[in-house]
UniProtKB/TrEMBL annotation:
One of its GO terms (biological process) is phenylacetate catabolic process. GO terms for cellular component: cytosol. This is 1,2-phenylacetyl-CoA epoxidase subunit A. It comes from Flavimaribacter sediminis. GO terms for molecular function: phenylacetyl-CoA 1,2-epoxidase activity. The keyword Oxidoreductase applies. Keywords: Oxidoreductase. Its EC number is 1.14.13.149. Pfam families: PaaA_PaaC (PF05138).
Length: 331
């Protein structure tokens, strides 16, 4: 319906080759691809995979912070956290809608998440043990998300690019509120400073892992860059994030937990220590500290929400019947 099954197929005809070349020309000319435009099947699949995983991440990402809404230290902190968690749910909805324009249904995407077939960001499988973790998530996790998502505002697929513009604005606010929590803790009592440092210690490496595997192991990067879905490699974005974040940690008077972190004058970038890729893949494959809990909660909430979906469908059906009856009466 939306696409042609061309990429990767053996025995392409001259017509196929001409279609692919014309599609690439549109991409190279920075023209946006819209849902009803013809597109290679591989392009459509890549977008459905990335956008739906992104949506799942936003929705599952509500859990670690949601854990602290009832325990936020002041009313002001509670209101800001509540709004942030709601924003993340909203981002999930925009993204599911963007993916739906590619011919995949919300039900299919939800089934893939709940069955464990679809991934979501590794970062949300780590626990939020202290209030400091809420600061660290806003500062580091939203900071990493912005670094990754600003280039996605220029993604070649129109609905995804447009959704990202609004999402990035909201993520910037989230990053600021997280950094402000860290500043308050870092200027507080010895115990509060220790809490901020502990949160940085536990969230630093998982935040670097959010950018995905390094060059050799990133299976999708080169094709996604050729299609201008991604504009930078995972390593390039990770470096940009480190370069922006290290001075922020210094300003807080906190220590980044990487003894090998060193400014490289030649690269004009920090060199960093080895990321524990075994841990990354373990978490991605379902064996992180909170994977089971996150999916269990999501499944329970989905089941408990069945009546809402049924009521909404019944309401839509009633409206349709009424509109139909009114049309017949008017004829
Ligand atoms: N976790 O070949 P690549 C947020 C998978 S939103 C889990 O490099 P690609 C807001 C990858 O899917 C955070 N899996 O893949 C917030 C692929 O597996 P597949 C989410 C990962 O797609 C803040 C395989 O590894 N953001 O934080 C991860 O070219 C606070 C090979 O990797 C997005 O989703 C990972 N970290 O690049 C919410 C942004 N990394 O699909 C609440 C959009 C890689 O073949 C609170 N996504 N994998 O089975 C992207 O930019 C890209 O998809 C990457 C991965 C960069 C994540």
């Amino acid at each position: 319906m939306y696409s042609q099954g061309l990429i990767g197929a053996d025995g392409r005809t001259d017509e196929d080759e001409a279609f692919l070349a014309a599609f690439q020309e549109r991409i190279d000319a920075e023209m946006k691809i819209e849902p009803n435009d013809p597109m290679p099947e591989g392009y459509r699949k890549t977008l459905v995979r990335q956008i739906s995983q992104h949506a799942h991440s936003e929705v599952i990402g509500m859990q670690p912070e949601g854990n602290w809404i009832t325990r936020a230290p002041t009313l002001r902190r509670k209101a800001a956290l509540l709004a942030k968690v709601q924003d993340e749910g909203g981002h999930g909805l925009y993204l599911y809608s963007a993916a739906e324009t590619l011919g995949v249904s919300r039900e299919e995407m939800t089934d893939q998440l709940l069955s464990g077939a679809a991934k979501y960001s590794s970062i949300f499988n780590y626990p939020t043990l202290t209030w400091g973790d809420i600061g660290a998530i806003g500062w580091l996790v939203d900071g990493a998300a912005i670094m990754n998502q600003i280039p996605l505002c220029r993604c070649s697929f129109g609905p995804y690019a447009r959704a990202m513009i609004r999402v990035c604005k909201e993520e910037s606010f989230h990053q600021r509120q997280g950094y402000e929590i860290m500043m308050t803790l870092a200027r507080g009592s010895d115990e509060q400073k220790a809490m901020a440092q502990d949160a940085l210690d536990r969230y630093w490496w998982p935040s670097l892992m959010m950018f995905g595997p390094s060059e050799g192991s990133s299976v999708h990067s080169s094709q996604s860059m050729a299609w201008k879905i991604k504009r930078f490699t995972n390593d390039e974005l990770r470096d940009k994030f480190i370069n922006a974040t290290v001075p922020q940690a210094e300003y807080l008077g906190l220590t980044v937990p990487d003894p090998d972190l060193k400014w490289n004058e030649e690269r004009q970038s920090y060199d960093h220590g080895e990321i524990d890729w075994d841990e990354f893949w373990r978490v991605v494959k379902g064996d992180g500290p909170c994977n089971r809990e996150r999916l269990r909660n999501r499944t329970r909430v989905h089941e408990e929400g069945a009546w809402v979906r049924e009521a909404a469908l019944a309401h839509a059906e009633k409206r349709r019947e009424r509109a139909e009856a009114a049309k017949i009466a008017a004829e």
